[in-house]
Amino acid sequence: MPIISPHGHVDPQIFVDNEPFPNPTELFLIPDHYVFRMLYSQGIRLESLGIPTIDGSQVETDPRKSWQLFADHYYLFNGTPSGTWLDHEFNIVFGIKEKLNKANAQKIYDELSEKLSSNEYLPRTLFDKFKIEVLSTTDAPFDSLHQHKFIKESDWPRRILPAFRPDGVTDLSNPLWKKNIEKLSITVGYEIDSYKKLVQSLQERRNFFKSLGATSTDHGVMTPRAHDLDDTEAEKLFQKALNGKSTLEDADDFTAHMLIKMADMSVEDGLVMQIHAGAYRNHNYEIYTKYGTDKGADIPMQCEYVKNMQELLNRHGNNPNFTVIVFTLDETTYSRELAPLAGHYPAMKLGPAWWFHDSIEGMTRFRRNMTETGGFYNTVGFIDDTRAFVSIPARHDVARRVDSNYLGELVAKHMINLDEALIIAKDLTYNLAKKAYKL
User: Fold this and answer.
1) Model pLDDT, residue 409
2) Do residues 299 and 329 lie in contact, with contact meaning Cβ atoms separated by under 8 Å?
3) Please, are residues 163 and 218 in contact by the beta-carbon 8 Å criterion?
4) pLDDT < 70 regions, the chain
5) CATH number of the domain that 149 lies in?
6) Are residues 149 and 273 located together in one domain of the fold?
7) The domain spanning residue 75 has which CATH number?
8) Which residues pair with 299 in a beta bridge?
């Protein structure tokens, strides 16, 4: 069936340019923190892999050397989801039948380079080859979305949609928060010097995102705590941040308040709300200061949902005009908290096994823990959440196989029959994501 990819981080510019990917290293290694975090864990420095630094300091510039280092240690990925995805990409997408290793590294690099230079492996061609029906990106409120506008107005009739992610201007603890507010001010054409103007600007940008096809928002938070403040309290916290005096407690309160405000706006404009919680981001300060965010140093943490989400769910959880999709990195909450919540509130759906749990065993644990209480139809199928474009078919293939294994087990136990299993399989593969994300 076609692929629905309603949440991810693929750069839409590759479809605007539609030019050959530079080389195998730039395609498989540089953008994929799943890959280089494993190499780093074994003492391989990121600069030797060619990972760009914030200050532009010297890193390896020969992609062949970085590729060889990757191949020398390819055995590290045995038994991991990254290994499964990479094997699928090399074998199925690119037709490379040998498994990458130290000895054949340069031979495979040459084979991949030759294929990447052909029209058959241009981004738009692969998009069609992968049978992607919808691909959503993730974008800041101050992004111009010029790539999406270009694609929409082009003669290439494919659905590449933006998704609204306001974290950069709603998280007061973000070191770039004030600069992001300045960027947003430039984008909307007026100075955002008050909480009221921040809310106004976010409403305007949400409408702009919708005009270019957006159907969802996304909120990456440490905890899913949602708590409303009155305008006076919110203004006080905003002004403290503008003056560089806000505390971590202030940031937590403001983020919790903005989750409520974003839910309010979703009720009004119909955008589906996603909450990604439970990630302690940038745990390795040395890596963060040298290379920036999304460099493999984010760690799962405990996360509570019953009390933290009660205010939001009591406010909008019964509203037929609201949908909130919740993802977690804390697997201990699956059967204890999330399945019962989604199994009750009509507005709440469960996102699939995410990030560290986007694996064969992780997806299996998800289904085992969620299904008895939440059922299949309070989940949203599979979301790949990838930055690496060519991994999309691999990730969906793994998810479809895992779900099929689980359904086959239920059939074998006579809990459902085969006809029911085939219907559920199609829903998990395609229909649930399309419906939940209003695609």
Assistant:
1) 98
2) no
3) yes
4) none
5) 3.20.20.140
6) yes
7) 1.10.2020.10
8) 280
